[in-house]
Amino acid sequence: MKKDTELRKLLQSQRELRYKRASAIKKGNVALLDIGTSKIVCLVITFLNDNEKHFKTSENERVNNFSFRVIGASTTKSRGIKFGEIYEMGEAERAVRTVVQRAQKMAGCLIENIFLTFSGGNPKSSILKTSIKLQKKEITELDIGHVLSKINLDKLQENKEIIHALPVNFSVDNKHGYMDPRGITGSDLSADVHALGIKNSVIQNMANCLNKCDLSLSGIAYAPYLSGLSSLLEDEMQLGAVCFDLGAGSSSISIFFRKNLIFSGSIKLGGMHISSDIMQAFQVSFSVAERIKVLYGGLISTSMDDRDTIELPGNENDLYANRVTITRSELIGVIRPRLEEIFDELKNLLQLSDFDFLPGQKIILTGGGSKMPGILEFAAGFLGKTVRVARPMRIQGLPHATHGPENAAIIGLALHIAQPHDEMWDFKVPFEHDGDEIIRRTWRWLKTNW
C-alpha cells in the first residue's frame, strides 16, 4: 500500500510538470534557467508556427518534437550559490531576477513559465529492475505501464526526490535489448529503469526562489544529463560514452548507452578550487586568480614556460612597490595537481558504473573546465581512454557568445524540452482508471481556462 502511495505521488507530481510543459509550449514563449556556482544563464525560446500539428496529442497527452529558436539570452554572476545549491536565498533571488529581466528585455516579452536545471543535490543514480507475467499475447502500452508500476522506489534514500526515471531496457521472455516492446508477443515482460534522485531540500529551495521571483516552475532536469544530450554524437550515445562535465563548483559524469542515460554522479570539486589554489599560492585576490587561470593557465609544461613570465597585479596605491612576477611553469605546477585530483575522483566514480563493459569507451569533455589548454592530452594520458573535447549542438538564434562548452547544460535543456525522452510517468499504470483520468483532465482544463 505504501509503495502504491509513493508511486501515485511521484506520477502526480511529474505529470503536473508535464502538463505545465505542454501548456507553456502552447503559449509560445518559455524561459530556461541554468543555476550554476559561477554564473546563472537564462534563455528565452519561442516555438515556431509549424508546431501546430504536434498539438494533436495521444491519449496520454505527450507533446514531442517541437522546433524553436532563441529570442533572448542573458548571463550574470552567481550570488548565494555554492556547489550548484542555494546557500543565501536573498542573494540568489536577486541574481535570478536580474538575469530573467535582462532576457525578457532582449526577447520583448513577459516570462511566466520557466524550466530549471542545476548540478547540485547529491544525486543518487540507481538501476531498478522489475518484471510481470503475461498471458501469451501481444504487448501493449498498458502492459508497459503495468510492469513500470511494479518498480520498488524503496531502494532510493528517503530524502531523495526522483527527477528522472528512464526505461533503459525491456526484456521479453529473457530476450534483452528491446527499447520499445509494443507489438512483441511474449509471456514474460521485464524492465530496467534508471532512476535519478536529488535531495528534496535542494529542489524545494530552488522552487521557493523561483516563486519569490513570480515565476512558475514548469520542469526540472539534471544538468550533467543535459550536457551529455547537447555534446554527444548520435553514434557515441548508441555505442556507449561518458560525458565529463567540468564545472566551477562541481564536476560530474553521465554515461549513455543505446541513447539512454544509465548512470550519473558528481563530486564537489571544480574550477573554482583551481582558482582558490592559485589565490593562495601567489597571494592574490580570487578575481585575479581566475583571470590568471583563464589567460595563462595550462596543463602541459614546455621548456619555454620557464622563461615565460606573468606579472601579478600589485598594490595600486603604492607606486614604489616591487612588481611580483611568476613563470608559467610555476602556474602549471599549481593547476595540474588539483586537476589530477578532480580526474582521480571522477575516475573512481567511473569504476562504480561498470563502464568498462560497454562497447564504446570514448570520454567526452564539456563544461567550462574543458577549455583549459592541454586538457585533451592530459585526460587521454591520465584516463587511458579515447578523449574528445566537445562543443554543444548549435541551436537556432543562439548568440555566438553563449555557444560554448560552459553552456552545454542550458542548450541541452532546450533540446530536452523540444524532444523529451519517454520516462516512467509517460505511461498509464493499472490503478489509473479511465473515469479518474477524465476528472483530472477536466479539472486541469478548468484551472487553466478559468
Describe the structure.
With 450 residues, the protein is an alpha+beta fold. Helix content is 36%, strand content 28%. The protein folds into four domains: 2-122 and 201-223 and 408-449, Nucleotidyltransferase, domain 5, CATH 3.30.420; 125-197, 2-Layer Sandwich (Dna Ligase, domain 1); 226-269 and 339-389, ATPase, nucleotide binding domain (Nucleotidyltransferase, domain 5); 271-337, ATPase, substrate binding domain, subdomain 4 (Actin, Chain A, domain 4, Alpha-Beta Complex), CATH 3.90.640.10. Strands 3-2-1-6-11 form a five-stranded mixed β-sheet, sandwiched between helices. A five-stranded mixed β-sheet has the order 14-13-12-17-18, with helices on both faces. α5 crosses α11 and α7 packs antiparallel against α9 (328-351). The radius of gyration is 24 Å and the shape is globular.
Structural class: alpha+beta
Give the oligomer, counting copies of the same chain as homo and different chains as hetero.
Answer: single chain
Overall tally of domains: 4
What characterizes the major β-sheet?
5 strands, mixed
* Total beta strand runs: 18
Whole-number radius of gyration? 24 Å
Give the helix tally.
12
CATH fold naming of the largest domain: Nucleotidyltransferase, domain 5
The proportion of residues forming helix, as a percent range, comes to 25-40%
Order of helices and strands: HEEEEEHEEHEEEHEHHEEEHHEEHEHEHH
CATH class assignment of the largest domain: Alpha Beta
